[in-house]
Amino acid sequence: MSLSGIGVSPGIAVGPVRRVTRVRLSEPIPASPRAVFKALDVVAADLERRAESADIDVARDVLSAQAMIARDPALVEAIGARLLDDIEYPDVRPDIADAFAGFKEALASLGGYFAERVADLDEIGDRLLAVLSGKAEEELTLDAPSIVVAEDLTPADTAALDLNFARALVVGEGGPTSHTAIVARGLGIPAIVGCDGIMDLADGTVIMVDGREGTVIVDPTEGEVQARETREASLRARAASVVGPGRLADRTPVTLLANAGNAQDAVAAAAVGAEGIGLFRTELLFLDRRDEPTVDEQVELYRSVFEAMAGRRVVVRTLDAGSDKPVPFINAIHEENPALGVRGWRLTRTADGVLNRQLDAIALASREVNVDVWVMAPMIDIPSEAAEFAHRARERGLRRVGVMVETPAAAILADKVLAEVDFASLGTNDLTQYVMAADRLDSRLSDLTSSWHPAVLRTIKMAASGAEGLGRPIGVCGEAAANPQMAAVLVGLGVSSLSMAPSALSEVRGYLAQVDLATCIRAAEQVLAVSSADEAEGIAYDLLGS
Ligand code: PEP
Ligand code: MG
């Protein structure tokens, strides 16, 4: 028997299931306001303690953020507004739920990264009730090698994992950007999320987890284990065996760059031999800010990334606030349709000075470090926007100026848009969303948001041809670049650089080293001719191999 989900951290693991179940608090919980605040303090202190002792950076960050939420005076105030009298309430669950609900709504309405914090609030609420009821949450203690299985794992659960024993993680809920996925990748153990039916397995059942494919095999045979382990080992060996700049088998260069949001990512990129940063997502520095960071603060942050990449290229993307990345001090107005609203470059309509100050900061930081700084603007739609951005950047001495091609309009008119700038980078995440008219964050539409759709591939081809006609380089910095077969197809479509998460780089480099340009071009021609994403992906795998 086998189950399937989304593989989010590659690797093969075999072991007995160890289920983690949550305490269900179905009984009334009597308490006074004083007891509730005391319990909230206990929860915050516990989270702080766990944050301090967490071995994994990402778990430490999540736990500290949760502790901060638990100590937020606004949360205390919201609870105080519901539990007014200093008496023993017969059941505090509804009032606590109400207080948390108001808080959650406010976060959810901000969307994107903020909406993801809603899960953290749920966890804090559960912990608060557990402390009040005297029922301790089950601590995840492992005393033998196991595969940890849960409906969902909280960051606190994952931070407490004993790495000597946790061989893999499989959860029933969650998507590729869930905490489980992020933490598992950080730990380097196989993980699968969104695995339906996983909680039906009894403790002790032996399973094999293939974190690359997203498959769980129940009671695997020795032959099944061996076959998957051999395949995984050869994929890893191929990735490790190729070093140096990206090249196809016939020595055609393909520049391999990494995506980064901060200096830590840039250090990880340097460690895997990235030829530079192909997408520095600067908005990550702005997301939790209530006020605009000063030029000096920005200079410091940009410099830290430049220093990690000294001597190499860093493509800095100007602020892509809005849509799934709202920034409180900029995106204050409610939009019916934020993905089609004022985001990216369009912010110059409502917050023009922010972009100018950011360009000032990038220019200043670029003079302080020996680094090849390129700048590009997100959500450029029409040639006049590209021209205006180029003017502002060049005026500040920034010499390599480009645009992201993320809208069908920019791809269709690529020959005109690129005439205004030096280079372009295809943001295939948004380009796919806009070509397919399907929200990239809506998991119900995940079949429509695959970049393998021929409509997306033809749009990429159109943009690449526009760039080629002008002799301008065009790259890809969306998730598509991290899939080895897709990377080869993109090269066949005319793309000359690929930028991806640092963790994906070695594998893409190893894969490209075994295909030649003629094969990439043949694969590109064939995927352009089919009518579905499945056909395109199937053809690419058949022709290019895995
Ligand atoms: C993209 O849209 O492909 C992209 C790289 O930008 P982001 O994912 O940050 O929107
Ligand atoms: Mg984008």
What is the 3D form? globular
Q: Are there runs of 5+ residues with pLDDT below 50, and where?
A: none
Q: How many DSSP E strands?
A: 16
Structural class: alpha/beta
Taking Cα atoms only, what radius of gyration do you get, to the nearest Å?
A: 25 Å
Strand order in space, largest sheet: 1-8-7-3-4-5-6-2
Instruction: Calculate the mean pLDDT score and round it.
Output: 89
C-alpha end-to-end distance: 25 Å
Q: How would you characterize this protein structure?
A:
- With 546 residues, the protein is of the alpha/beta class.
- The chain contains 21 helices and 16 strands.
- The strands form two sheets. An eight-stranded mixed beta sheet has the order 1-8-7-3-4-5-6-2.
- Strand 7 and strand 8 form a beta hairpin.
- The protein starts with a strand and ends with a helix.
- The mean pLDDT is 89.
Identify the notable features of this structure and list them briefly.
546 residues; alpha/beta; binds phosphoenolpyruvate
Please write out the topology.
Layout: E1 2-4, E2 6-9, E3 12-20, H1 33-53, H2 57-70, H3 73-82, H4 93-110, H5 112-116, H6 118-133, E4 146-150, H7 155-159, E5 166-171, H8 179-187, E6 191-193, E7 206-210, E8 215-218, H9 222-241, E9 255-260, H10 263-271, E10 276-281, H11 295-308, E11 313-317, H12 352-368, E12 372-380, H13 383-395, E13 400-405, H14 408-412, H15 414-417, E14 423-426, H16 428-436, H17 454-470, E15 474-476, H18 484-493, E16 497-500, H19 502-512, H20 517-528, H21 533-544
Parallel strand pairs: 3-4, 4-5, 5-6, 9-10, 9-16, 10-11, 11-12, 12-13, 13-14, 14-15, 15-16
Antiparallel strand pairs: 1-8, 2-6, 3-7, 7-8
Helix pairs in contact: 1-2, 1-6, 2-8, 3-4, 4-6, 9-19, 10-11, 11-12, 16-17, 18-19, 18-20, 18-21, 20-21
Bound molecules: phosphoenolpyruvate and magnesium ion.
